[in-house]
Write a structure and sequence with these properties.
With 236 residues, the protein is mainly alpha-helical. Helix content is 73%, strand content 0%. Helix 5 packs parallel to helix 10 and helix 7 packs across helix 10. The longest helix has 36 residues.
């Protein structure tokens, strides 16, 4: 009877479970859709003969669905603000600088392995066509890229990590379930190679993402995650 009582979830744990299931179901639904139409979607988005705006919106819609829609729906459902998840001024400089330090090994790997082809923040497959379409289109399109591929992708990690950490708290100074789950999630959603360079890539990616999320935990500030996806992860 005593063991049974220990397994009874608190109200807050039940809320966190629902939040995580909502995010997981939305994300996996969109990801499954991408799995079915991904090749056709990528061909469409790369077709320069089509107007750039529908191609950008198609890519942005899929990206937002995978990394953003779930946490947005949870915030609407719970009537909470994004600012409740660390989007604040306090410790923002510390969060950003700490995150940059965590990404240095991964940046070094990319440069030393000869994969660095230039620093291009806020650049996706349709970016060259946005620039060709004129200054206003380039500015508006780049803003959409920044919001979807930068803000939401980075903030998505921060919110999910916070939910997991609150649901499964850890007393370890260097270990956190939320950071670990989101790091593995980030690694599994990207190609993995099992040769030596691939293992180095895997290790430095782990350090970058796990370190970024531990910085978020200790600073209680999520701007480091957003900065990483705006100016590092999608830029090199």
């Amino acid at each position: 009877m005593e063991n049974l009582k220990k397994r009874v979830l608190t109200k807050q744990q039940k809320i966190l479970n629902v939040n995580l299931w909502m995010i997981a179901l939305v994300t996996m639904t969109i990801y499954c859709i991408y799995g079915m139409i991904g090749n056709s979607l990528m061909s469409y988005c790369r077709d320069g003969s089509i107007c750039v705006w529908p191609r950008l919106f198609a890519a942005a819609g899929m990206e937002y669905g995978i990394a953003g829609l779930g946490i947005t729906l949870v915030c609407i459902f719970r009537k909470t603000s994004f600012t409740d998840f660390g989007l604040k001024k306090k410790n923002s400089a510390l969060a950003v600088s700490g995150t940059v330090l965590c990404f240095l090994p991964h940046i070094a790997y990319i440069v030393l392995s000869g994969q660095f082809e230039g620093y291009e923040p806020l650049s996706i497959m349709v970016t060259p066509d946005l620039h060709k379409a004129g200054i206003l289109t380039a500015i508006a399109g780049t803003f959409i890229v920044a919001v979807v591929w930068g803000f939401f992708e980075g903030f998505n990690y921060a919110v999910i990590a916070q939910f997991v950490s609150e649901r499964y708290p850890s007393n370890g100074k260097l270990f956190d379930w939320g950071a670990l789950v989101c790091t593995l999630m980030g690694i599994l959603f990207h190609p993995i190679h099992f040769d030596f360079p691939g293992m180095v890539d895997l290790a430095t990616t782990f350090v970058a993402l796990y370190g970024m999320l531990m910085i978020r935990k200790y600073t209680k500030n999520s701007w480091g995650c957003v900065f990483a996806f705006l100016f590092i992860w999608n830029a090199i």
